[in-house]
Amino acid sequence: MNIYKLEIVTETIISALQRLITQLSNECNPPSKEDIISIINSDNITLFLAEVNDEIIGTLSLVFNKIPSGDKVWIEDVVIDKSVRGKGLGKRLILFAIDYIKSKNIDKINLTSSPERVAANNLYQNLGFGKRDTNVYRLTIK
């Protein structure tokens, strides 16, 4: 598997990200070309793609925040294509992201995962992520 930071947007990448992100949740809208360009031009977001045999099969985003309480990083939008799940590819993608974060001298990594994503939650716990004693809130503005 080849994992790399997305730096150039092509129609193949747009199509792959739209396919993958809609597999994450029924609530997710596929990103537009403009969305993806904005993401890769952001100083706070790093988007990785994973390929097998020149086919994009996974993605992961890192969101970096510098706030008064310190540097924070969140792993977001981890998706391995449903056709290749269960082969350890998600684990390799997460480990790649952890190594990247370590190179930035950040010592805490945050992520959230929906409880119904049982395999993903098991993976995160097996990699050493622990549940935090906190509440996550969302306000939806219409």
From TrEMBL:
Record domain N-acetyltransferase: where: 4-142
Domain of life: Bacteria
Gene3D superfamilies found in the cross-reference section: 3.40.630.30
PANTHER family according to UniProt: GCN5-RELATED N-ACETYLTRANSFERASE 3, CHLOROPLASTIC, GLUCOSAMINE 6-PHOSPHATE N-ACETYLTRANSFERASE
Protein name: N-acetyltransferase domain-containing protein
Organism: Algibacter agarivorans
